[in-house]
Amino acid sequence: MVSAVGAKLQVGDGDFLVASLIERCPKSMMSRELVKNALEAASRARGERLVEISAIDIDGVPKLCIWNTGEGLSATDLFKMCDIASSIGKEKGLQHNFGMGAKVASLPSNQLGMRYRSCRRGKVHEVVIGKRDGVYGRLAAAKPGSGIFAVVSDVTLAASQERRLSQDWTEVVLLGNSPEQDTVADPYGADPEVEADWLAAELYARFFRLRGDVELRILNGGPKRGALQRFATLEERGPRDFAGYECVTDPDGFRIHYLYDVVSSTNAWVNESGYGAMQEAKSMAGLVYDDEIYALAYSWDWTRQAPDFGIPFGARQISVFVELPGDYPLIIDGYRQFLRHRHGAQEQVGLREFIDRVRDHRPQWLIDLMREMAPDSNISADVRQELQKALRSLGVRRPGLDPEAPPPPPAPAPAATPPQHAEAEPETAVQQEAPPAAEPPAQPEAAPRKELADDEVMLAPDIFFLRDDTEVGERNFVGRAARYYEETNALYINLTYPVAREIHAALTAALDHPTSPETRDVIRIHVQRVLALRVGMVVVYALSKRSEPHAWPDWAVTGAITPEALTIAADDFHRLIPAMAEAVRKELTGEA
Questions:
Q1: Maximum CA pair distance of the chain?
Q2: C-alpha 420 chain-centroid distance
Q3: Which of 10, 35, 120, 289 has its CA 20 to 30 A from that of 326?
Q4: For the domain 16-230, what is the CATH superfamily, name and number?
């Protein structure tokens, strides 16, 4: 039995391994890696703790520069620092800031070079790493007037013309992939292209908070380019710049951050917190671990998911972050792009895993705000009453209630409600190989269905109407009449769907006085009501099938309440027009 390692594993092709690690790294991690390194170094400084991201000219071309205070590197340390998986002053470990690193993340977009300079006790040394002839490494430079080439150079004299040498510092300059590349405005060589505020946007979406009393100043990407502005994180800006902010800690140690941003009074597409900020103010949601943001859902990606998290309205102004406890069982992948579960198949830790926590801990002020944003509460309440009657008559049990007890069999539907499918009983009989009968067996009178108590009956869905094309697009409703979110029991009706206009036109044509404002208003209400009731009943009957798991497994029930299924149900409205027109006439004339 082997009890010890007899020979360590070696790397057979070092150049290929290095190139593979570098060129597989996501380019988007470059700013995170460079800034994180600078922040950590500055946090250990004895005096001023400062990180500055600015632009310097190299042969007349702007290049991005990251500079920080903190203990400088000697020539020997600067040389070692350039190796892959080598860092100075860092604790190695999966849970620490030790991954593939800034070099790996930055070199794909800076093959011409990354220039490192470090001042230690008044002396400055420089090393440049880049790619030449297909190989990544330290670039040799000739010492002025000597003809001798070296990979680490003493540049104290040149550096003294640009910076003070009275304190230790380190800087890295991104040279890009070509001499003419402006790495301030175009950090990735147009692959991908970026907006003017790319740096602030990337840092804002990554660093939830800064520790160690470090001040971060970054280049303003707007009209005042060249000016440095103090960078503020979401945690700092939440209580200060947002209209509403609260952090709730649950019993398991999760901290859920809720932020509400007011829409600008002059521009409906802009949130107030964006004024004076270096990045756009759009809503988002994500996970926070060790002060950094992961699994980010941004703008439309977030607003499409928000109803599942208990944010039915206002998702364009509401942001949510779930901060994981420090002892949460996870590992961070090598490029620090994802969080992964420590055990099992080590899948990525996703935002949607925490839907219940976000929904269950929403502050009351936020719930009240969302209620104010929900229009047509009277119509919704009316339809919900009808759906609640149907849920009770069908014996639909509230989800999660007494899971050990089998759901009760559905009761015979009353005359006013559409009858249930009669095929379920014969199908059960066939599965049990019962002898054929001339008539379906009657329900045994000895075992009547037990009436559910009020707190056992499933609640009717909350109903919301969408009229705005932007909201429809954000929720991916285009071409769909409705969507049901089972996690939050919410039903959204798309009033921009063509069927709504078609029903309105058909009712108008069927009435004697279609042009009066009163008639148009009554028609509008009936259109909303019939659409909500029609798709709502489909949801109710689909959910009732959960009491027949042998015939209706979960995937079948889910298929019956997809947006596509609800849309097709809404499309079948023509036979309802005569009854709807009569109802409108009676309402207009005051008939009983």
A1: 109
A2: 41
A3: 35
A4: Histidine kinase-like ATPase, C-terminal domain (3.30.565.10)
